[in-house]
Design a protein that fits this description.
Blueprint (H helix, E strand, L loop, with lengths): L2 E11 L4 E8 L7 H12 L3 H19 L5 E3 L3 E9 L13 E10 L1 H5 L5 E4 L2
Parallel strand pairs: 1-6
Antiparallel strand pairs: 1-2, 3-4, 4-5
Length: 126
C-alpha cells in the first residue's frame, strides 16, 4: 500500500500557549499533468495524445457541471462539488446571494477510498 513520509516540527501552539513537537507530512514532489498522462498511457495502452484529448474534454465538462451546481463523481474516488460559505442573517431578506463570502470547489472522497488510509505506512525522514 502507500507510504507517506513525515517530518517533525517544533511549533507554537497558540491555543495552548506553548511550544510542542508535531508530525507533519513531508510532501513528495508534485506529479505534473504530462507525467500523469504518461503513467496512465503505460497502464492503459492508449497514447498520451489520446488520453490528453480525453483529459481535457473531461476537465472542461467537470468545470462546467460543477460551476452550475452539479456534484460530479470521479470513478471510485469521490465527488467534485461547488461549495460556499455565507454570513448568517437575522432576517430572510438578508440571507440572499449577497451574504455569500467564500466560493470554492471541494473534493469529497468516497468511504472505500478513505478506508485505504488505514493501510498507509508512515515513516519519518529527515
Amino acid at each position: 500500500m502507500g507510504k507517506i513520509y513525515l517530518k517533525k516540527l517544533k511549533m507554537n501552539l497558540a491555543v495552548q500557549q506553548k511550544d510542542a513537537w508535531v508530525a507533519k507530512i513531508r510532501y513528495a514532489s508534485p506529479i505534473e499533468q504530462l507525467e500523469l498522462l504518461k503513467m496512465a498511457s503505460d497502464d492503459s495502452g492508449m497514447t498520451v495524445e489520446q488520453l490528453s484529448a480525453v483529459w481535457f474534454a473531461m476537465e472542461n465538462q467537470i468545470k462546467e457541471l460543477v460551476l452550475n451546481g452539479h456534484s460530479v463523481e470521479i470513478a471510485n474516488m469521490g465527488f467534485f462539488q461547488f461549495r460556499m460559505n455565507a454570513k448568517a442573517a437575522d432576517t430572510d431578506e438578508e440571507a440572499g446571494a449577497e451574504s455569500v463570502y467564500r466560493k470554492k470547489i471541494g473534493f469529497l472522497a468516497k468511504r472505500r477510498y478513505i478506508a485505504r488510509l488505514n493501510k498507509i505506512n508512515f515513516r519519518f525522514k529527515r
